[in-house]
Amino acid sequence: MTTPTRIVIVGGGIAGLQLATRLGERLGRSGRAQVTIVDRSPTHIWKPMLHTIAAGTRDVQQQQVIFLAHARDHGYAYQPGELTGLDRARRRVQLGEIRSQGGELVLEARELEYDVLILALGSQANDFGVPGVREHCYFIDSQKQAETFNEALRMRVFRSIARDELFRVAIVGAGATGVELAAELSRLLEVAQAYGDATVRERLQLTLLESGPRILAAFPPRISASAQRRLEQIGFHVLTSTRVTSADANGFHYGDGSFAEADLMVWAAGVKAPDFMQALDGLDTNRANQIVVGPTLQATGDEHVFAIGDCASLLPDGHERPLPPTAQVATQQAEHLAKHLPAWLDGQPIPPFAFHDFGALVSISDYDAFGTLGQFGFFRGGFIQGRFAQFSHLMLYRRHQQALHGFSKATLLWIAERINGCVQPRIRLS
């Protein structure tokens, strides 16, 4: 009897979970492979949705995927844990111990053996070593962080209502995450007016800070200008070419020597892979801690280790820069491995990964949306705005749901979400 190939996927984000789903269905159910996904969280949230969880404008219970239940239905296994080390010679990943919130030991440190290792660890905000940021700013890199920020946000809003005082929120970083969070916070306070204080929105002071000359630097200037105008219309104070030099408990210090007070501070400037990836048993990494991979998505120097998504750095032939850490890149890389890894296990080569840029979208909550159509399709390089852009942005998430659950279940989830929206508050109140 043939021993199943042990495929270990570390990281249950967009790329990791979609790959585990496809490989589990294709290889796990048949017994050809033993597919295991490792993640420190028991649930998955689509990362581009985290800003809505942070703002409290979406119900986290309806949007999360429980790994254990999903694994049962799709032919893979789930192991809770956080990667702490790697032994490539023995082909083992090392997982740290797990403790409860009260400090009780739940699982001791342990090792998992693998034949094929796929690193899909995602990314986190890059504080660039700015003093005080780690101690005083909130980050929105995970479901846990988003919920922690939401709790602090709700407490501050309640205090503002009770004391009739100004409430100041400052967000550093005007990429897609910062801009979408900014818009969602404005929307939250508009809806909150119906729950006890019609003037709460007027007491909210919102500031978006960007060190570069324009917001949404990854988008064309036309979109940057349109998005900034829209943010300013809904009450945000947008500051570009503003460098934060340090943070303390009361606000941000700027490069020109000035100081801006803030009650809640969010850091969304830049991304990097987790710091521990610099010491993963000699794997080649770049300055952003990403694993350097070749065209087949295999780590340089070890064909048994793959890296995909935000934690991987791939420089395509003829390009000056590596592919950006976006959900679109992560999804396509997961699809590429899901398609070609089974044949590779039988000795066939993996064809080079080719990224197809289908454009980018940014949502300004319910107010507006903007996007480009990329270099593939009928309208190459086109610009979209308004309802069509909002619909296109929503379809990105629906497509992700369909990839995880199939068309029928994804449709039922959408219907359940619509029904729940008719009977539940539009924002998180507790």
From TrEMBL:
Keyword list, A-Z: FAD, Flavoprotein, Oxidoreductase
Cofactor: FAD
Top-rank taxon, per record: Bacteria
Coiled coil location: none
A GO biological-process term: aerobic electron transport chain
Transferase as UniProt keyword: no
InterPro entries: FAD/NAD-bd_sf (IPR036188), FAD/NAD-binding_dom (IPR023753), NADH-Q_oxidoreductase (IPR051169)
Domain called FAD/NAD(P)-binding: residue spans: 6-334
The keyword Oxidoreductase appears for this protein: yes
GO molecular function annotation: NAD(P)H dehydrogenase (quinone) activity
Family (UniProt): Belongs to the NADH dehydrogenase family.
Protein name: NAD(P)/FAD-dependent oxidoreductase
Species per Swiss-Prot/TrEMBL record: Burkholderia contaminans
